[in-house]
Write a structure and sequence with these properties.
769 residues, Rossmann fold, Dimethylsulfoxide Reductase, domain 2, 4 domains, 6-stranded mixed sheet, 6-stranded mixed β-barrel, 33 strands
C-alpha cells in the first residue's frame, strides 16, 4: 500500500511484455490467489473467508454471476473471485485521518488502482461546498444533507438513483421503492452499460430478457458456442462447466477477435490433471472474427441452414414461431450466394472453409447453446446481432429444449437480480400496478433516465442530485471528460461504497461517502442476524450470509441505509414500514413475494439449500410472452464497422488483474502483460504497416464522422495475434475515447467495442521533455 499518492502523470506504469499463454488457471492461479489474499487479509482470515465463498451456508462471491452447481467443492471460488473477496475482507482501513491528510484535489490525480488499495471505508464522510477535504459526519447528519438537497429540487426527476450490480435483492427492492415513492423512475444501473442489448433483443424475440438455460443444460448440450466472451478472466468458474460439457461429448466453437487462453486449454485446479498434467483442450473451432462481424457470421450460418435440406425444425417453427417466411425471404433476397459470401468474408475476416466447418458442427448438433457477453452487446448494431443469434437457435428448435438455448453471461453478481427487483428506468405497467396495490401510492409512469441520459441530464443541468448505490460510476461510464464535468455540475453526489474509488474524488458541489457492509460481513439488525439474496446469471435465487465482523462499527447495511434515508426524506406520512424492513429482511421478502411473479413463498423457497429457479416461460414450456404470443424471427440488415485505410478498430476490455473498474494488480498474465495497463494490442503486420515496432509508444485517437476526436495518451504498442485490422486496450483508461452519443441502437448501451482509431507515435516516456 502506498504511503502517499503517486505522481499524477498518466504514464506511470512501465509495461513489460511477453507472449500470450495458451492455457488458463492451473497452479499459477492458486499461487496468485493465495498471495493476494494473504497480502490483504492475512493467513488465518484468508482460510476462514475463502472456505465460505459460494457455499450453501456461506456468502455469494462479490465477483461474477456464474451459477454454482448443487454439489460444491470445498474451495468453490476462482482466482478472480478470491481477489474480489480479499479486496472486500482486507485488513486495510481508510479512516478520517486519511482524508485529513489527503485533499480531494490530490486524490483526484491518483490512479484507480492506488485508491482501491487503501482499504475499507470506515465511517460517513462529508465534503462541504468549496472544501478540499472530506470530514467525518454522523449518519443522521448525512441523511439530513441528502433530504435537504432532495427537498430543494423543482421536481423529483432532478434526482438520479444509480445502482451497481452487487446490490442485494432486498436492498434493490427497497431502493426502487424509495425512488418511486419519492416520485421518479430515474433508476439507471450498470445493466445499461453491459447487457441492456441482450435484454432488449431477447424481450422482443422470446418475451423474456434473460437467458433460457440452467447450468445442467450445458452438460446436455451437443454444441456450445462462446461468442464475444473471455471466461478465463471474466467468469473462470465457467471453464469447469465447459470441461464437464466436453467430457459429456459437447463440441465448443469460440468466436472472438482475440485468442483467449481459457478457451484454448483449461487446467482445472481441482484435479491432478489440471495441476500437474496437460489440462483439457476446450475449443474445437476458433473463429477469429473481425470486431463487429458477429451479426454477419450468424446471418451467413442462418442462410446456409436455410439452404440445407432437412436442417430446419419445421414443427417447432410452425407451432412456436412468428415471422419465419418474412425472415427467410429477406435472407434469401440478399443476393446470390457468391455475393453473399464476399460480403460475409469482408465483414468477418474469416475464410469460407472456417464458416463451412462451423456449419457442419451446427448441423451435427441436436442441442445447441450460444453464450455471449460484452463482445456482442457493446456495438451500435448489438441488438440486431443478438436477434440474429436468436434466429440461429430458432431455426433448429434450440430454445425450450434441454441442453439448448440462449445464455447471456452476466458480470456483476446480482446485476440480473437488481433488474428483477425493479431497478429499471422503463418499468413495466404491470410491475407499477403491483407496487401501487401493495404499498398504496401511485408510482410515476413516465420513463426515467438510463446511464447515458442521466449523464446528459447532469451535463445540461436537468439533474442536480446523484445518488449511487455501489459501483464506480465515473470510471465505468463513457466519455470520461464529459462525464466528469457533468458530475461536477451536480448540487450533491452520494456514494454508498465499501472501498475508495475515483467516483469519490470527482464530486458535485457537495459530496457524501456512506460506508456499507460487504457480502463477507455479519449483518445484525433489530430482528437478529440477517441474510440477503441474489440472482445468478441463470435465474437461480439463493441466500448469502456474511460471517466476518464488520470492518467498522459505524457501517450500515444497504437495506438499513435505504430505509433510514427513505424515512428521513419521505417523512412520517409515508405508510411504508421502513423501520420494519430495516430490522428484519424477511419482511422485505414477504412484500417481494406479493409484488414480483416467481417469488411467491419467497422466504420458504430461499430457505432451501441452494435456493430456487425463477420461472422462465420459453425454457419451461415453450411459451413465449411476446406481442405475437410466439418466438419472433427478425430480419435486420447486416451491419459491421467500416474502417478507413491506416486506421484500426479498437475494442476495450479487462485485464486479468481486473474486475470491471476494480484493479487488483497491474498484470495480465494470460496475455503476457506485466507491470502496466497502458498497452494497445495490435497485429504485428498491422503494426509494421503503421510504422510501429513492438515496444513503441503511441497516443490513441478515436475519430468520428462529425470531425471530432478524442485522445488517450501514452500507450505501449504490443504486437499480438489479434484479428487483422483490429486492436484492443483496457478500460477504464480508454473510456475517454468513447463519445457519450456512440451507443447501441434501441438499448442505448455505450458502443465501446467498436472504435475507429489512429495511432500517433510518441517518444518513450523516459525520453520526453
Amino acid at each position: 500500500m502506498a504511503a502517499k499518492p503517486p505522481a499524477s502523470d498518466p504514464i506511470q506504469d512501465a509495461p513489460e511484455t511477453g507472449g500470450p499463454e495458451h492455457s488458463a488457471v492451473g497452479l499459477p492461479a492458486i499461487t496468485n490467489a493465495l498471495k493476494i489474499s494473504r497480502q490483504q487479509m492475512g493467513v488465518r482470515r484468508t482460510a476462514l473467508t475463502l472456505l465460505r465463498v459460494n457455499q450453501k451456508d456461506g456468502f455469494d462471491c462479490p465477483g461474477c454471476a456464474w451459477p454454482e452447481g448443487d454439489k460444491r467443492h470445498t474451495a468453490e471460488f476462482c482466482e478472480n473471485g478470491a481477489k474480489a473477496v480479499a479486496e472486500e475482507a482486507t485488513l486495510r482501513r481508510v479512516t478520517e485521518a486519511f482524508f485529513a491528510e489527503h485533499p480531494v484535489s490530490s486524490l483526484a490525480r491518483c490512479s484507480g488502482y492506488w485508491l482501491g488499495q487503501q482499504g475499507r471505508l470506515t465511517r460517513p464522510m462529508y465534503l462541504a461546498e468549496g472544501a478540499d477535504h472530506y470530514v467525518p459526519v454522523s449518519w443522521d447528519r448525512a441523511f439530513d444533507i441528502v433530504a435537504e438537497e432532495l427537498a430543494a429540487l423543482d421536481s423529483p426527476d432532478e434526482a438520479v438513483f444509480y445502482t451497481s450490480g452487487r446490490t442485494s435483492n432486498e436492498a434493490a427492492f427497497l431502493y426502487q421503492l424509495f425512488a418511486r415513492e419519492f416520485g421518479t423512475n430515474n433508476l439507471p444501473d450498470c445493466s445499461n452499460m453491459c447487457h441492456e442489448s441482450s435484454g432488449s433483443a431477447l424481450t422482443e424475440t422470446i418475451g423474456v430478457g434473460k437467458g433460457s438455460v440452467l447450468l445442467e443444460d450445458l452438460y446436455k448440450a451437443d454444441l456450445i458456442i462462446v461468442a464475444g466472451q473471455n471466461p478465463g478472466t471474466n467468469h473462470p468458474r465457467m471453464l469447469t462447466a465447459l470441461e464437464k460439457a466436453k467430457a459429456g461429448g459437447a463440441k465448443i466453437i469460440s468466436i472472438n477477435p482475440l485468442p483467449e487462453a481459457g478457451l484454448e486449454r483449461f487446467k482445472n485446479p481441482q484435479t491432478p490433471r489440471g495441476l500437474v498434467g496437460g489440462g483439457t483442450a476446450l475449443t474445437d473451432l476458433f473463429l477469429q472474427v473481425r470486431i463487429g462481424g458477429d451479426q454477419a457470421l450468424f446471418r451467413a450460418l442462418n442462410r446456409l441452414v436455410l439452404d440445407t435440406d432437412g436442417a430446419l425444425d419445421e414443427a417447432f417453427i410452425r407451432e412456436h414461431t412468428h415471422g419465419f417466411e418474412e425472415f427467410a425471404a429477406a435472407v434469401r433476397g440478399e443476393g446470390p450466394q457468391d455475393a453473399h459470401w464476399d460480403e460475409t468474408l469482408r465483414a468477418t475476416g474469416l475464410t469460407r472453409a472456417e464458416i463451412e466447418r462451423a456449419l457442419r458442427m451446427v448441423l451435427d448438433s441436436k442441442r445447441t447453446i450460444v453464450c455471449w457477453a460484452m463482445g456482442l452487446t457493446q456495438h451500435k448494431h448489438s441488438v440486431p446481432t443478438i436477434k440474429e443469434v436468436v434466429n440461429f437457435l430458432l431455426l433448429r428448435g434450440n430454445i425450450g429444449r434441454p441442453g439448448a438455448g440462449v445464455c447471456p453471461v452476466r458480470g456483476h453478481s446480482n446485476v440480473q437480480g437488481d433488474r428483477t427487483m425493479g431497478i429499471f428506468e422503463r418499468p413495466a405497467p404491470a410491475f407499477l400496478d403491483a407496487l401501487e396495490k401493495e404499498f398504496g401510492f401511485a408510482p410515476p409512469r413516465a420513463h426515467g433516465y438510463d446511464v447515458v441520459r442521466a449523464i446528459r441530464a447532469l451535463r445540461d443541468g436537468q439533474a442536480k442530485v446523484f445518488f449511487a448505490m455501489g459501483g464506480n460510476f465515473v470510471a465505468a461510464t463513457p466519455d470520461t471528460d464529459v462525464t466528469e464535468a457533468a458530475i461536477r455540475r451536480a448540487r450533491l453526489t452520494v456514494h454508498v461504497s465499501t472501498k475508495l474509488n475515483r467516483s469519490h474524488v470527482v464530486t458535485g458541489a457537495r459530496a457524501l461517502i456512506l460506508p456499507t457492509l460487504g457480502r463477507t460481513e455479519r449483518d445484525i439488525q433489530a430482528g437478529g442476524e440477517q441474510f440477503v439474496t441474489v440472482e445468478d446469471s441463470m435465474g437461480m435465487v439463493h441466500a448469502s450470509r456474511g460471517r466476518l465482523a464488520p470492518a467498522s462499527p459505524q457501517l450500515l447495511s444497504e437495506p438499513a441505509i435505504v430505509a433510514r434515508l427513505a424515512r428521513r426524506v419521505l417523512g412520517p406520512d409515508s405508510a411504508t414500514p421502513w423501520e420494519e424492513f430495516a430490522g428484519d429482511y424477511a419482511r422485505i421478502r414477504d412484500r417481494i413475494a406479493r409484488v414480483i411473479p416467481g417469488f411467491e413463498d419467497f422466504n420458504a423457497k430461499v430457505a432451501r439449500p441452494g435456493g430456487f429457479a425463477l420461472p422462465h416461460a420459453p425454457r419451461d414450456d415453450r411459451r413465449f410472452p411476446t406481442a405475437t404470443g410466439k418466438a419472433n424471427f427478425t430480419a435486420a440488415p447486416v451491419e459491421y464497422p467500416e474502417v478507413p485505410e491506416g486506421r484500426l478498430l479498437l475494442q476495450t476490455l479487462r485485464s486479468h488483474d481486473q474486475y470491471n473498474t476494480t484493479i487488483y494488480g497491474l498484470d495480465d498474465r494470460y496475455r503476457g502483460i506485466k507491470n502496466g495497463r497502458r498497452v494497445v494490442l495490435v497485429h504485428p503486420e498491422d503494426a509494421r504497416a503503421l510504422g510501429l515496432p513492438d515496444g513503441a509508444y503511441a497516443d490513441l485517437i478515436s475519430e468520428w464522422k462529425d470531425g471530432s476526436e478524442r485522445r488517450a495518451p501514452g500507450f505501449r504498442v504490443v504486437h499480438y495475434p489479434t484479428a487483422r485490422g483490429c486492436a484492443a486496450a483496457y478500460y477504464p483508461e480508454t473510456n475517454v475515447l468513447v463519445p457519450l452519443d456512440h451507443t447501441a441502437d434501441t438499448s442505448n448501451t455505450p458502443a465501446s467495442k467498436s472504435l475507429v482509431i489512429r495511432l500517433e507515435r510518441t517518444p518513450e516516456p523516459g525520453l520526453r521533455s
